[in-house]
Amino acid sequence: MRHTARNAAVQALLQVEENEGYSNLVLDKVLKAFQLERRDSALTSILFYGVLEKKITLDFYLQHCLKAPEKKMNAAVEMTLRCAAYQILFLDKLPDSAVVNEAVETVKELGKTSSAGFVNAVLRTLLRRKKEIILPTGNDPVSLSVRYSVPASLISFWQEAYGAEDTERILKAFLERAPLYIRSNPLKASFQKLQSSFSDSGIDLKPCGFPECAGILSDCGAPQSLPQFEQGLFHVQDISAQLICEILNPQPGETVCDCCAAPGGKTFTAAEMMQNKGKLIAFDLYRGRVGLIRDGAQRLGLDIVTARRNDALLGFPDLEPVDRMLCDVPCSGYGVIRRKPEIRYKDVSSVSELPTIQYGILQNASKVVKSGGVLVYSTCTLNPAENNLVAERFLKENDGFIPMKIELPASIQRRSKEADHMFTMMPFSGASDGFFAAAFRKK
Ligand SMILES: C[S@@+](CC[C@H](N)C(=O)[O-])C[C@H]1O[C@@H](n2cnc3c(N)ncnc32)[C@H](O)[C@@H]1O
After folding, report:
1. Are residues 257 and 354 in the same domain?
2. Separation of CA 361 and ligand 1 centre (Å)
3. What residue's CA is closest to ligand 1, atom 1?
C-alpha cells in the first residue's frame, strides 16, 4: 500500500471503528507506521478528524448517491467513500477529479478492486448532485443528527435532560475547534515570563484571566515538543479541568488525595496551587497510567506528589485522613466530544453501569476525609445520571456530609435549576469542555 495521507486516514478510521482505542492514540500509531512528510501528516489528521466529526452528515450525502442505499457496504470501501466525500464537501485542497481518482486507487490497494467502479460512480454522482442535496432543517433529533453529526439517540437524551434550546447550543459548541489551554507552572516561571519566552519563539500565549495561570496557545504544533514543556514551565489542561481544581481549592501544607488521577493534569494543578508544600497522594487503577503521573510531576518539579496504583472501588487501605479529596471519576466523556469526536457514537445505553461505579468510588473516598475536610466529585460528561443524581444520592445516604457552595467567577453562568453545591459547565458557557462538579464538606 502506498504511504499517502488518504490511505493513512482510512487505516486509522478503520481501527477506530473496530474499537482499537481513543482517536488520538490510534492516529499517532498509524502516523508512526506511515512515516509521512509533515504536510501529508497534517492532511491525514484533517481527514481523520473531519470524517469522525462529520460521519452522519457525510453518510446522508452518500446515501443520496447510492442506487441501493439499504445494501450493506464493505467497511474499507465505506471509509474510503467517507474520506473522499469529506474532501469534496468540506475541503478545497485537491481538485475534485483527483479526489475521485485517489479514492479509486485506495480501494484497489485495500484489495477491493471489484469495488473500484462503484466508488468512482458514487463519487461522480456526489460531484454532480452535491448542490441539490439539502440537509434537513427541522429541530427534531433526526434532522439535528444529520446537521450536527451526533446520533439522534444522544440528542433526544440531551433534550430530555437539558431542554431543546441548550441541546442545540451544546451541538453548536461541539462544532468549534477546542482551544489549546495550558497552565503555566508558577513554581518555575510567572505567566508573563512564560508568555515572553513563547513570544521570543514566535508563539502566541493569551491569558484567560481566570484562573490566573491559564492561557491559550496558538500556532505552536505539538506542545509536548516545545522546549518550555521539556523545562516543566507548563502543562496542557482544559480550562474546565482548571476550574475543578479551583473548586477543590487545595492549600499549601494540606494533605490532599486525587483518587482517580491519571494522566495527572488535576494533580499537577493542585500541587502547584499548594506551592509544592504538603502532601498530594495521586492514585490510579492502572500501573502504566500511574507512570504518567510520576513523569509529569517530575518534569514540573512537583515533589509533594506521590503516585501509586490503587483500586478506589476497594477503598484506601493505607491512606491517612485527608484535608481534601478529589474524585474525578471515570465517565462516559460526553463533555469532551470536541477533543475525542468518536465519543459521540458511544451508545447512551452502554454507559448505564457507570453511576454504580462512580457512586462506589465516591462513597469509599468519603471515608478518608477528615472532619471539616472537603470532598469534590467531578466528571467530564453531560449526563445527569452520572452527575447530579450521583451527588444527590451521596448527600441522601451520607448525613456526615453537608453541601458546600461552589463559588464561580462572574464570567461563568450557573445553570438555574441546580443546587449551588453542584455545577454543570456547558461547553457553550465559556469555550471549555463540558463538565460537572459537586462539593461537600465533612461535618
Ligand atoms: C477522568 S480520568 C482522570 C483524569 C485526571 N483526573 C486528570 O485530570 O488528568 C479517570 C481515571 O480514573 C481511573 N480509574 C478508573 N477506575 C478506577 C478505579 N476503580 N480506581 C482508581 N482509578 C480508576 C482511570 O484509569 C482514569 O485514569
Report:
1. yes
2. 10
3. 330
3-state SS, residue 380: coil
Whether 164 is covered by a domain: the verdict is yes
Q: CA 358 from chain center: how many Å?
A: 19
The ligand 1 atom at the shortest distance from the C-alpha of residue 361 is: 19
- Buried-state track 264-279, b at ≥16 Cβ within 10 A, e below 16: bbbbbbbbbbbebebb
CA 328 / ligand 1 centre spacing (Å): 7
432 shares a domain with 290: yes
- Rounded Cα distance between 99 and 85, Å, is 9
Q: Is residue 311 a known part of a binding site?
A: yes
* Ligand 1 center to 327 CA (angstroms): 9
Structural domains counted in the chain: 4
The reply to whether 160 and 261 lie within a common domain is: no
Give the β-pairing of 369-379 and 322-328: parallel
ipTM attached to this prediction: 0.99
Q: Where are the alpha helices (DSSP H) in 130-234?
A: 141-148, 152-162, 164-173, 191-200, 227-230
Confidence class of residue 416 from pLDDT cuts 50, 70 and 90? Answer: low
User: Does residue 355 fall inside a structural domain?
Assistant: yes
As for ligand 1, residues whose beta carbon falls within 6 Å of it are 241, 260-266, 283-286, 289, 311-313, 328, 330
The parent domain of residue 188 ranges over: 180-221
Does a structural domain hold residue 430? yes
In a domain, 405, yes or no: yes
To the question of pTM greater than 0.90 for the whole model, the response is yes
Q: Are residues 309 and 391 in the same domain?
A: yes
Q: Is the pLDDT reported for residue 347 higher than 80?
A: yes
12 is in an annotated binding site: no
Is 245 one of the annotated active-site residues of the chain? no
Residues 200 and 254 in one domain: no
pLDDT at 162 over 80: yes
Count Cβ atoms below 10 Å from residue 324 Cβ, excluding itself.
23
Residue 245 has pLDDT above 90, yes or no: yes
- Statement: residue 413 has pLDDT above 80: no
Considering only CA atoms, which residue is closest to atom 17 of ligand 1?
A: 285
Cβ–Cβ under 8 Å, residues 22 and 30: no
